[in-house]
Amino acid sequence: TDIASAIGLHQLRRAEAMRRRREEIASIYAERLAGVDEIELPAVVGDPRLADVEHAWHLFQIRLREGALAIDRDAFLDALRARGVGYSVHWRPLHLHPYWSETFGWRPEHLPTASAVWCRTVTLPLFPTMRGDEIDRVVDAVTDLCRRHRRPVAAGV
After folding, report:
1. DSSP conformation class of 87
2. What is the pLDDT of residue 156?
3. Within 10 A of 26 (CB to CB), how many other CB atoms are there?
4. Residue 151 gets which letter from DSSP?
5. Rounded Cα–Cα distance for residues 85 and 111 (Å)
6. pTM score, two decimals?
7. So what's the pLDDT on residue 119?
8. What kind and span of H or E run contains 3?
9. Total H helices, total E strands in the chain
């Protein structure tokens, strides 16, 4: 529509500045969450092969490391919400959408890798107008939840 076009043209003038701010926030997340062993950061973080890639940083997804926490993703998300941290869960694999499972009988075990990754993925808040205290709240919540719910490592392992 004409209205959507007018809004879009205005947004285009700010697109690069917004991308740079998201990149800055992603860098802060990556730096401050790097020592949290219970999560995996986005693959692009710190990969020298991708040094010349300009990432859009429209999402910052972490993965809960399999077996590292005594709670599952849903409990982790509930705990984030209780701390006032918004989150998203993106990219539900198609075979887990009701249409595909009901129509064709697809089950998680049919695509085990996609199912397993999706069950561990959390999208942290990332938007250009995030303030420092909001970033701190996200980092502190993730770090504290991982510390509190860390699964003890068995002796000799």
Report:
1. -
2. 58
3. 21
4. P
5. 31
6. 0.85
7. 92
8. helix 2-33
9. 5, 3
Q: Are 23 and 127 in contact (CB under 8 A)?
A: no
> What is the radius of gyration, based on Cα positions, of the chain?
18
Q: What is the mean pLDDT of each run of 10 residues along the chain (157 residues)?
A: 86 91 94 96 79 88 96 96 91 90 93 92 96 98 98 68
* Residue in the block written with tokens 């690069």: 16
Residue 55 and residue 126: Cα distance in Å, rounded?
13
- Residues 50 and 95 sit within 8 Å (Cβ to Cβ): no
Share of the chain above pLDDT 70, in %: 96
Q: Compute the residue count for the chain.
A: 157
* Distance separating alpha carbons of residues 74 and 65, to the nearest angstrom: 14
> Phi and psi at residue 92, in whole multiples of 5°?
-55, 125
**Model confidence over 16-60: pLDDT tens digits?**
999 999 999 999 999 999 999 999 999 876 677 877 888 899 999
